[in-house]
Amino acid sequence: MIGCRVTMTLMILGGAATPANTWPGTLPAHFNLEGFSLTPKINAIQTTVDSGPVYQRPKSTGSIDLVTASNIMTLEELAIFWTFYQTALVQGSLPFIKVHPITKVNAVMQFDVTKPPTVVMLS
After folding, report:
1. What stretch of H or E contains 67?
2. Partners of 38 in the β-ladder
3. What's residue 67's pLDDT?
4. Computed from CA positions of residues 47, 53, 57, 59, in that sequence, does the dihedral angle turn out positive or negative?
């Protein structure tokens, strides 16, 4: 089988409105475990006060988790992914629904447009 590894950086947007787009059902539903990372973005602010402990509060009600992950895809799946990314998501700028890699429930995600997906061909 000739295929490829697609590596992507996504933001999981906690508390975001439900978007119109959904991860295509013809693409792998789950990320590969190899190379997977999830890092919560700091969503709190800390303020020093005159006396007593520091004051901490959330910056916002929403949260963002950063995910770096990859999928092994066939060339046919790559074509579907690329059309989804380029057309439906307007070069990855729009959010979409995909199964959360940890909780396994639907989550709102969005590509980090500063780190576009990379494709490495496999043989």
Report:
1. strand 63-74
2. 67
3. 95
4. positive
Q: Residue 22: which residues within 8 A CB-CB, separation 6 or more?
A: 96, 97, 98
Torsion of Cα atoms, 62 then 103 then 114 then 82, to 10°: -130
For the chain, domain boundaries: 3-117
3-state secondary structure 10-34: EEEEECCCCCCEECCCCCCCCCCCC
Q: Give the tokens for residue 98.
A: 């995909």
Low-confidence ranges of the chain (pLDDT < 50): none
Check residue 76 and give its pLDDT: 96
Q: Which two tokens stand for residue 107?
A: 């989550």
Nearby residues of 81 by Cβ (< 8 Å), 6 or more positions away: 6, 24, 27, 71, 73, 117
